Amino acid sequence: MILTAFTLLHVALSLVGILSGFVVLAGFLTAKRSNGWTALFLTTTVLTSVTGFLFTFHKFLPSHAVGIVSLLVLAVAIPALCVFHLAGSWRLTYVIGAVIALYLNVFVLIAQLFMKVPALKAPAPTQSEPPFLGTQVVVMLVLLSLGFSQPNASPRKRPTQSERCCWLWRIVCILLSSRSINSSIPRELEQETSVLGKGFPVGANHEYEYETQTLDRRRALLGRHRRDHRSDAAKACIGRAAGRRSGC
């Protein structure tokens, strides 16, 4: 009686893990993650592998090997999600781990179906025949193609309306500052040129030196103004955006 109830619990955990795993897989395709389904998938998948070792056995079985691999994969996938929050390469690590864990659950389900259902057991009694192997390969390819159709699939936080307004305000500030740069530089270049022209003697060589030095001074002045104005504009825009964030 206890063994039957425990077997039902193990099977229920496995089915829930598979169902929730497909929901998580659908989230990869749409780049939307449901925290509830993800937690359910990871929890039931871990419990499925753990409870599989609690059955009485006299030798090491293939299901034990599958359980060990599943736990090792989840030991990497869970920290990638909960500890490292899918930062950088941990995003792909989590996707790979989740797909492998789901496939292993489905693998065991297919093996049990070919073992328990007479219509499936007849063509593949030893589970080494082409029908069984072909089914496993097809399932593996389908899960891999779905899981990695978007390798970077993971929920990305969309900017709120307030954040959009603030970024727009920053862009406007930068454009206005660029316009002020272009309008102020010619006046200062003219002043620099007038100062630079004083003291130069008349002559072809001196005129060439004068023009060369003028161009050099113009380039230096232009670069200095652009750096100064961009720095001031960025600081001003960041301050205005922070002050108007709640009102955007």
Short summary:
The chain is mostly helical. The chain has helices spanning 2-30, 35-52, 62-82, 90-116, 118-121, 130-147, 161-197, 204-244.
Please describe what this structure looks like:
It contains 8 helices and no strands. The chain is mainly α and 248 residues long. The protein has 2 domains: 146 residues; 87 residues, no CATH class. Helix 1 runs antiparallel to helix 2, helix 1 crosses helix 4 and helix 3 packs antiparallel against helix 4. The longest helix has 41 residues. It is elongated and about 95 Å long. The two termini are 64 Å apart.
Mind sketching the topology for me?
Blueprint: H1 2-30, H2 35-52, H3 62-82, H4 90-116, H5 118-121, H6 130-147, H7 161-197, H8 204-244
Helix pairs in contact: 1-2, 1-4, 2-3, 3-4, 4-6, 7-8
